[in-house]
Structure formats: C-alpha cells, structure tokens
Specification:
Elements: E1 2-6, E2 21-23, E3 27-28, E4 31-32, E5 40-41, E6 47-49, E7 56-59, E8 63-68, E9 78-88, E10 91-99, E11 101-104, E12 124-127, E13 136-145, E14 150-153, E15 162-168, E16 173-176, E17 189-192, E18 199-210, E19 213-224, E20 228-236, E21 258-268, E22 274-278, E23 286-289, E24 295-298, E25 301-304, E26 312-321, E27 324-333, E28 337-346, H1 351-354, E29 373-382, E30 389-391, E31 397-400, E32 406-408, E33 413-415, E34 419-427, E35 430-438, E36 446-452, E37 461-464, E38 469-470, E39 473-478, E40 483-484, H2 498-501, E41 502-506, E42 512-514, E43 521-523, E44 531-537, E45 540-553
Parallel strand pairs: 1-9, 37-45
Antiparallel strand pairs: 2-7, 3-4, 5-8, 6-7, 8-9, 10-13, 11-12, 13-14, 13-17, 15-18, 16-17, 18-19, 20-21, 21-22, 21-25, 23-26, 24-25, 26-27, 28-29, 29-30, 29-33, 31-34, 32-33, 34-35, 36-39, 38-43, 39-40, 41-44, 42-43, 44-45
Amino acid sequence: YEALDGTPGSSCNSAYSPYQRTEVVAEADGLDVTPLVTFVTSNDQVARVAASRFDLIEGRSAGVATISLYAGAPVAQSLPIEVTDDVRVSVDRLVARLVTKMSWVAEQLPPESYVFSVDAQVAVQLTGSLRAEGHFGLVYTSVVWSDGLHEEVGFSPEAGVNELFLTGGSANVMLIPPLTPPRSESFWQVEVVAGAEEECSLSIIVNWTVCGRTIGTGKLPLLIELPVPTKMSIGAEQSQLSPAGSDPTLPGIGVASKSQLKVLVTFEASDGTLTTRDLTRDSRVKYSTLDADCATTQGSLISVRSTADCSVVRAAATVTLSGVRLTASTAVPIVRVLSASFTLSGYPPADENAGITVAALGLVQCLTDFYSSATPRFVVTLDDAASTAYDVTDYSIFTSSNSSVVLASPTRLRGMSPGVALVTASFGTTSESVLLPVHREVIDPIISIAWTIPGLDDSDTYVDVVNSTRATIVDVQLESGIMWHNLADNSTAAWTKLEDLVGFNSSNPAIISVEDSVGTLQLRHNWYLSVPLHAFVQCNTSTSTERELKANLAPG
C-alpha cells in the first residue's frame, strides 16, 4: 500500500482536506499513457482526482480507495491508496526553482523513429536565468515530506486553502501572482523590470500555506544575466511626409503629416549571442527633432509643422541602458506639389474615349439646342524621387466662370449655350484652368454606325416563329474618335434619344419589319431572298449601315 499521510491542521472548508497529494502514472508496455487515460476512484470521500490536474490524487479522509483506469477495472489496472490519520508528516524541505526555458539536450534528443521494446535515452534541460529586461520565468515549487514523499505544490491556488506566496526580492524584478490579468498562468511569475542590474541572490522567500498556515518555507535562486547594449537604430513608419494641412495630405493623395518612430536596440550576451529588442515605447528613450522649425516630437510621434520649409525632417533618439548611452537619427523626405495638369477628354467616360482630347464643345448632330460634353481629369504630381502622379479628379472642385455656357462637375463639363467659359479645377490650394469654347454648330459629326442584332452576330438568317421580335443595339463613332455605345440607353445624357439621331428602315417590311424607333425587328414571313435593313443618321442619311437577313419561319 502507498500511504497519503495527514498534514497538521484540520479541513478549512468542504473543498479541501489537509492530506498529502501524489501523482499517478499509467503505463502500457513501458509507454507512459497518462495523458491518454482518465482515472477514477472507488471512493471520492477518501481519495479523489484533483480538479486542477488529471494525474494528481488528493487525500480526503482516512480510509482506503482504489484508483483505476475505469470503474470495475481488474487489479492490473488499479492501485489501492491508503489515507491515514495515524501518521503526522511535516515538510523537511521546500525546493523552489525559476524556469525560463525548457529544451532537449542536444546529445539526447528523442529519436526520429522508435523501435518497440528498445529504450530511448532522452534528456531535457531547464534554464533558470533571466537574460533581458522584460524576460520572465515561472516559479515551480515542490516539497519533500518527512516520510520521503515528493509533492509539487503551489499550482492552481485556492484562496485561503492552498496557496504559495513570494516575498522579498530586489528592485530588479517584479513578482506577479498567479492568474493576474491579463496572464492566465497558474504559477507565480518573476519578471525583470526596466533599468534592472545583474544579480545573483537568494533574496526571494517562498512560503507554502495550507488553510492559512505556513507548511513549508524556502528561497528562490535568482540569476539575472543582462546583455550589453551595443547599437541602436531609429526609423519612421512613413517613407515620406508633408506639412500639416498641405495638399499632399488631402484625400486623393493621403501623404501623412505625422509618423510613428521605431527604436530597435541590439544587445550582446556574454556568449556573443546578439538579440534585438523594440524599445519604441520605453520611457527611457528620449525623442527629439534636429529641425525644430520643421517638426515637433511627442513621445515617439513626429509631426511636420504646417509652416515647414524644409526638404527633409530629421528625428533623433537617445537612451541610456546599463550605463551605456546610445543615440541614433533618421531623416524623412518632405514632399510637396510639383505640378498639376487639367485635361479634357471624350464624354461619356470610357476607356476608348479617355485618350481623345477635347478642346471645344458644339451642337450634337441632328439636334438644334443640345450641346456635347467633355470628361475632366485633374492630375497632381509630387516632387518626390519618383515624381508620383495622382489622379485627384474625384476629390477636386470644378467651377465655371459662366455656368450658362459650361456647367462643371467632377464627372462632366456640359455645354449649355454658345460662348466661352473659364473652367477651373481646384484641389486644396492647387488649381489649373482651361478656356472651353462652346460653338453653335456641329464640330464633331457622326461618321459611322455599328448596328448589331444580339443572337445574330455570326448569322445572316433570322430564324424564329412568326411575328417574333428581336431588339437591336446601335453604336456610333464621332469624327474625333469618340464612341457612343447603345444609343437606346441615354443614362449618361450625352445625347437625347436614339430616334433623334438614328433612323431605321427595311426594304421589305412584309418579310422583316422595323417595328419602332429604337430598331426592334419583327419576323413576318418566309422569303427566299435576303432583306436589306438600314440604320442611318437622321439628318444625314449618307452616313448609314446595311444589314442583310434571310427570313426563315420556325414551326410553331
């Protein structure tokens, strides 16, 4: 029998009894399968599985209980445990250790493959030294009882029942209790504070209490080995900046007038290992600007003044660590508007119209009081190294010196009546103007018509039931190269109505007729000859297109 002996004191609530605890292990053919099984007890009033750990059995009251892999398991898969009041035990020794890292020993790594029944010798190495500011470790504590039993204590504490307390220490470390937000660890944590110095001591006292009574006391070895700071660098998150409120900072370009700075410090450990830490928000880092007339700093934020008259802004940082003073500086280019370009292209806006320059507006052909339009484009170029250009049309304001001649907006410059207007594009304080004349004559006539019949693009035969109809689509090209697509859709208001510009006819309407002013075809009869169909400019029938179709009635 393995005994769990009572500790001094009495139960301090119904959830805890002052008895020892012990780990339990399950093996299958030499393999530790403890994490894969669930232990059960025959009498949880005597001994039970601890709520905090699946492999820990805690005594509850005097008696004998059987721990098994499952209820009713055979003897080979069970273990009887006795809990007794006959023996009083005390802690001979409390051992506390700080663990900062756990790793396999290089010479005793787990094998890549395992041969059954062959022993594999592996080893784990624990590191307990603290090697940088902010570095921390967890405190693991065990006790050796007077009866020789070893027990891990201090994890998953319960207030007033089973607790571990750390006191003392030096100004070099911070002692953090278990489960202190935002941490979720069930162990005490020791963390190196900013400005710490190297230390090797036993200054931290560890007390384990049960039901408010100190059961064991020990000391925690503390070793702080700090690396030496050797180099510092500073950089800006933004690759370029502009004066506050200047045109490059406006929506459409969006160059920042402020930037966060970032400070990195390189440290060298005693073994030559180099590490880098981000000390951007460390209170010991002091920021400044070398160009006070151009910028200001507030913490790690640098801001360019609205009155800045410089091509670069320089920022510096200084920090003293372990008696070593480090400085670094960086420079960020200041960009401004170099030039602006205000151009006019074909309307409606479309890829094929974008490259066609418009210098004047005139009457739309066949219309007596409806004028053409142009698409504005305003581009601002910065004086950065790449001379980057930004299309800021959608973010600009367009005005006309005479809205009765030209009506201006970011999407359209619309001719309203004959005359000349000065149209101005403004982006912040950057502006450009163009003179735009409007003529009371057609200056850009229609030179070609494209008439398509969906479903008959590759066929010259109109096959359908009698009196069926089929819609058509009309596109036109102007002399300048501007394209107007699908004249039946005048949502862009570049023209009035399709029938104002284009007409249709059929050479044999008894076979295939044009049923309305938008070019809808109707199949009326079979015919052995092709039927010529025409689409033409209403006021200039010499500009036309012809389509020949054969009529073929389908059964039905």
